[in-house]
Amino acid sequence: MLEFIISKYNFWLYVILMMIGLYAMLAKRNLVKKLIGMNIFQTAIILFYVSIGVKKGSVHVPIIVDSHGHGAQLIHAADYLNPLPHVLMLTAIVVSIATTGVALAVLILIYRRYQTLNEDEIIHIRQARQKAGV
Amino acid sequence: MKTIILAFVILSGGLLIYGTIDMPAWGDPHSPANSYVSPLYIEEALKETETPNIVTAVLADYRGYDTMGETTVIFTAAVACALLLRGWSEGRKERE
Q: Do A23 and B5 touch (CB under 8 A)?
């Protein structure tokens, strides 16, 4: 039982982190807090993928040591971490930076227009303005 | 409303944790993610691309077109930010 927990607890931690982000996205009324929740969600997925590429034991990061005499020495795949999750998560980080940047720009515009970032207040102001015919 | 959201979040978290029962153990060198294509990349990357850093070799050589598309994503985001925030300083001056 203890062995089972030790072999799986990292996934559970990432699921908990992901659910914190999902709760923030759904339940918080402040738009910046929603955005922070989305970032926590993305970070949880990135951590999950990187943890898939881990190999226990005496392994190096995926940078080949002594590469100047290349061709001579044999490279064993078991000596290096799995590089593919790292590469895919670089792509995911790029996408998350892009979405966060555009979302912050939109939030600046929303704040300029309504002087608040609270979702309920924005809906209230919109309805009041529609009734007034502005 | 918040209790419904909390129940939904706990339910989906429980389902995801139930799904991890079938995941390979953490750090298992023979897990599926570590055993099919990744040994090929590790062994052939230096020979084929002359790059000691395997992550760089995969990102800029094997997946070069994907990385080029990623620069399009970043460029689009930068243009979108610039268009959205255009005239921000002028609008602030008008109000002052």
A: yes
The rounded distance, in Å, linking the Cα atoms of A86 and B41 is: 13
CATH 1.10.287.3510 fits A2-55+79-132, yes or no: yes
Asked whether the beta carbons of residue B58 and residue A87 sit closer than 8 angstroms, the reply is: yes
- Comparing CA positions, the residue from A83, A18, A61, A93 lying closest to residue B20 is A18
Dihedral (CA of A125, A131, B2, B6) sign: negative
- Looking at the whole model, is its pTM more than 0.80? yes
Q: How far is CA B47 from CA A60, A133, B74, in A?
A: 19, 70, 31
Domain encompassing residue B17: 7-87
DSSP track, A44-59: HHHHHHHHHT---SS-
pLDDT in tens, chain B (96 residues): 889 999 999 999 999 999 999 888 888 888 888 888 888 888 888 888 888 889 999 999 999 999 999 999 999 999 999 999 987 665 555 554
> Which residue in B has a C-alpha nearest to residue A84's C-alpha?
B38
Residue B89 Cα, gap to closest chain A Cα (Å): 11
Count other Cβ atoms within 10 Å, centred on residue A62.
25
